[in-house]
Design a protein that fits this description.
Shape: globular
Structural class: mainly beta
Number of strands: 10
Number of domains: 1
Number of helices: 0
Oligomer: single chain
Amino acid sequence: MTILRISSATANTNTVTIGTHAQGDLLMIFGYRDASATAPTLPSGWYNLMATAASSPSLVVAWKIAASSSESSGTWTNANTLHSIVYRAGTGNIVIPTILQTNIATTTTPTFGAPAVTGTFPTNIDDYWIVGMMGMRNSSNNLQSATWTGLSNVTSSTDGSSWQVVVNDSNATRTTAWTSQSATVTTSATWRSAVVGLIEFPTQAASGGGGFRPINIRGGADQ
């Protein structure tokens, strides 16, 4: 089986219309806040995977499993831009995200990156992807072309004057651990980055329209 990217969407506001999705899909939203130490606040029903509440730009990464084909983002207070990505597992499987690394540069630099992940590469899974988010306080750099090795651009946004954000993923199964990565842009910028792993686990629940309630994944009763 393999993970599939189903849709993506972005909006320069605190809400975004989630692209095509079905019950059981993994919904991920990456939020960026410029020039503030207050990271975007999650709406009810979303699970915080990572947040960097530091001076200058702040990032937040959150997720949930779709209970229907008409999920909404809710309002992410303090967000300048939101990026929504939908992933689907093969029949009988489910995709779960895990945070790998975050990186913060509080001093301006033209090089941004993420440190290597240590430990044993997971083997008891059906598939494994990497997703990377980068946001920086400079709108003139072309972040879409400054990706880490092994990742390609999925979404991008900018206000045209102060900041820009991109989300990239591997768009393929990885068979080796994430290594130390860096990318260089033209102009120095204060930046934040996050790297997320997507793991496809075998379950008794079918994704992409299969009949299950996501609360079962958390150990609750059927509703």
